[in-house]
Amino acid sequence: MKLKISSFSSLNQSYPEQHLNEMRNYWDKKILEWEKKRYLKSSYINPIQRRQAIIREFLLSMDPGLTVLELGCGTGLLYKSIAPEKKFKKYYLVDISKVATDQLQTTVEDSNVKIINSSIRNLDINILKEADLILSSGLLDWLEIDEIEKIAKYSKGKTFIHTFSIKSFSPIRLLHATYMKLLRLKFKSLIVSRYHTKQDIYQLFGHKSFIQKYYQGSFGRIITNQKINKLAIRNYFKARYKEVDYQKKQSSFPWILLKKLEQSLYLDYFNKHLKEGTTLNIGANTFGLTDFKKGNKITTIDPCCQDANIIDDFEIYNFNQKFDMIVMIGVIEFFESPPKSVKKAHHLLKENGYLIVFLHKDTFLTSLYYRFHKNRGINLTPISERDFINLIEKTGFTIEETRSFPLWANSYLIKK
Ligand SMILES: C[S@@+](CC[C@H](N)C(=O)[O-])C[C@H]1O[C@@H](n2cnc3c(N)ncnc32)[C@H](O)[C@@H]1O
């Protein structure tokens, strides 16, 4: 049965074979460089890597007795990242690019792996039928409707996970669309990647599946009919963060001076507003902790700090107590969802409790600070002063005092 997809307006119904050849040439020229840039040379964790990490963790949680079919596999980076940890009954790797599959042939020798050079359109239906788990990463945006329909038809009733780019009006998405258009002009190529609406994707893959983001702020989405283990993904990234020489380097010049400034500010607030009571210091790694461990009323939480009381992520950790003061010095930009974290802080504070936030200003020094983190695999989310104040007020807090540290940050004393 042919699916009716009214709103797939951007897709060509007629699908000349010549287009497939163009697609093959395009990816033959592009795939190695593309993978090098996105995965191998990139010094920070970008959305594409996050997408792969999610699918990787997804696969690692699956039964090894399954036959897996990976469509648009490129040179098999995903497969190679799971192979040392998990061997499936059979693993099909399919790609239209001969450059990609030839490289796979020379680098993968596992007897359970079958490498196929084919477009989705010409892919043997028996393979789709045989697979128990069908996945694709970064593929749906490059296909025409008959190919997407083919994947969706055989994904139904099986385990599946596919990524796609959502049609939305986010500035990043529009910027991406412009960039892709320029590339098309530059290479005089007809190949263009596409964005899909949620409705179209649900219509194809069935309403029992669900769509989720794979990166805050990204227009990338995942459609699957299985639960995704978010904790495993976070743990994977925590391990990545630890790999980078972040801890050592952040105690170097000039950051050490700024740290001292933050410390003195914290002590000042602490002495004025919290002689007694309990404090939660989030992102405890910001300080030399020892100065603040007066008594044991300060709880510190940090996923990357061996000395913290709780070595975990504030955003997911379940606390069983409330606090008189919560400190977020230089950490709000680290959160995947600042609004959720501020809400959580509100919930965790006792009535009349204080929240202390140190928020970076939009300055040159801050841009250096962001770059410093980016180079170490940590993507920070800049928040403007206005957005921050809106967020704080919307959450039900009152700002009692703001101090400005020129060229660097504002500090806020906020009351519940
Ligand atoms: C953006 S890359 C993604 C590579 C890898 N899966 C990843 O997540 O990094 C898209 C891949 O899809 C393949 N591809 C594009 N059109 C295809 C088609 N019609 N049939 C099969 N593979 C296709 C390309 O050759 C390329 O390897």
Measure the end-to-end span. 58 Å
Helix fraction?
25-40%
CATH superfamily of the largest domain: Vaccinia Virus protein VP39
The CATH class of the largest domain, by name, is Alpha Beta
Radius of gyration: 25 Å
Pick out the low-confidence regions: 1-14
Domain tally: 2
Spatial shape: elongated
Quaternary structure classification:
single chain
CATH architecture field of the largest domain: 3-Layer(aba) Sandwich
**Main sheet specs:** 7 strands, mixed
Care to describe what's here?
This protein has 416 residues and is an alpha/beta fold. It has 2 domains: 16-240, Vaccinia Virus protein VP39 (Rossmann fold); 251-415, Vaccinia Virus protein VP39 (Rossmann fold, 3-Layer(aba) Sandwich). The chain is 40% helix and 19% strand. It contains 14 helices and 13 strands. It has helices at 17-40, 47-60, 77-82, 98-107, 125-130, 145-155, 171-186, 198-205, 230-243, 246-249, 255-273, 338-348, 364-374, 385-395; strands at residues 67-71, 90-95, 113-117, 133-136, 159-165, 210-213, 220-224, 279-282, 298-301, 323-329, 349-360, 398-405, 409-415. The protein has a 7-stranded mixed beta sheet with strand order 3-2-1-4-5-7-6, with helices on both faces. Strands 9-8-10-11-13-12 form a 6-stranded mixed beta sheet, sandwiched between helices. It starts with 16 loop residues before the first helix and ends with a strand. Bound molecules: S-adenosylmethionine. S-adenosylmethionine is lined by residues 23, 27, 31, 52, 72-74, 95-97, 100, 119-120, 137-139, 142-143, 147. Residues 23, 27, 31, 52, 72-74, 95-97, 100, 119-120, 137-139, 142-143, 147 line the site of S-adenosylmethionine.
